[in-house]
Amino acid sequence: MSGLLLAAGIIGAIGIIIGVLLGIASEKFKVEVDEKEMLVRAELPGNNCGGCGYPGCDGLADAIAKGKAPVNACPVGGPAVADKIAAIMGVDAGGSVKKVAFVKCKGTCDRTRVQYNYYGADDCRMISVVPGSGEKACAYGCMGYGTCVKACAFDAIHVVDGVAVVDKEKCVACGKCVAACPNHLIELVPYDAQHLVRCSSHDKGKDVKAKCENGCIACTLCTRQCEFDAVHVVDNLAVIDYEKCTNCGKCAAKCPSKIIV
Fold first, then answer.
1. CA separation, residue 110 to residues 113, 115, 162, 260 (Å)
2. Please, are residues 96 and 82 in contact by the beta-carbon 8 Å criterion?
3. Which helix (H) or strand (E) holds 253?
4. Is the pLDDT of residue 31 over 60?
5. d(CA 239, CA 216)
C-alpha cells in the first residue's frame, strides 16, 4: 500500500512540475495576436484560394491588419466582405466592384479553321509549345482543352463548343483561370459590364477572316458609333473602357463580326 502511495505522490509531483514549466513556457514564448487580425479573419470566406495573392485567408488577414493589403483584397468575398473589413479597420472600402472572369474568344469549332488534327494530352499549356499551338488556325484564340476548367475550384468555367465559357453567377474572380490560360485570353471584368469584346486576335482583318469567322477585323465601326469615347481599336483589336462605357449597345449593333456581346 505504501508503494502505491509513493508512486502516486511521485506522479503527482511530476505533474505539478510539468504544469509549472508549461505555464512559464507559455508566458515566455506566447505570440501576441492582433485583435483586428482575428476580426478580419472571421469575415473572410475561408476558401483559401490564393486569389488575393497571399497564402490563404490567414495570410491575407495578417496583411490587412498590418496595412500591407487593401480591405477589398479578397476577390471571393467581394464588396460585401470589403465593407465589413473596412468597418473593422476604420477605413473606406474604396468603392470595390464585383468582378467576374471573361474569356475573350468566340472562335467556336464551327467558326474557326482547323489546321490539323491533334491527338495528345488535354492541357493548353503543353499544347502551346506544339507547332501551331493546337488545332485551331488562330494562334490567339481559345485552344479548348480545359486547363482553365481544371484550375477553377468553383465549377464556374466549362468548355462549350471548343471555347471556354464562364458562369458569372458561380465565378468569384479568384484569378486562377486567368493565370492558367497560356494565351492570356481571360481577364477580370465588372460583373455588370454588358458589352465585352470576345476576341483577342491582333492580326489584320483579312488574316483574321481567313482563320476565324468570329474575329475582330479592326474596322473601327464600333469606335465611330460610341459617343462616350469608350471604344478604341488598339493593335488591330477593339478594346472597351468599362469605366466610360454606358452600355448603350451601339457598338454591338454595328459590329459586323458580332464579337461585342
1. 8, 13, 9, 19
2. yes
3. helix 250-254
4. no
5. 10
How many CB atoms are closer than 10 A to CB 192?
12
Look at the chain and report how many structural domains it folds into.
Answer: 3
Mean pLDDT of the chain: 87
Radius of gyration of the chain, Cα coordinates, nearest whole angstrom: 27
Could you tell me the three cell numbers for 143? 485552344
Residue 248 falls inside a structural domain: yes
CB count within 10 Å of CB 183 equals 19
Residue 28 within a domain: no
> pTM (2 decimals)?
0.72
CB 186 within 8 A of CB 178: yes
Q: Pick from 8-12, 113-117, 135-139, 157-161 the range whose average pLDDT is largest.
A: 157-161
- What cell numbers appear for 189 in the block? 471584368
Domain of 68, in residue numbers:
35-89
Give residue-wise pLDDT tens across range 167-205: 999 998 888 899 999 999 999 998 888 899 999 999 999
- Cα–Cα distance measured from residue 33 to residue 256, given in angstroms and rounded to the nearest whole number: 60
| Cα 98 to Cα 150: distance, rounded to the nearest angstrom | 23
- CATH of residue 246's domain is 3.30.70.20
Indicate left, alpha or beta for 173 from its phi (over 0: left) and psi (-120 to 50: alpha): left
Mean of pLDDT values over 247-256: 92
60: Cβ–Cβ under 8 A, 6 or more apart, which residues?
Answer: 44, 52, 54, 69, 73, 74
> Three-state DSSP class for 100?
strand
d(CA 129, CA 136): 14
Q: Which distant-in-sequence residues (6+ apart) come within 8 Å of 5 by Cβ?
A: none
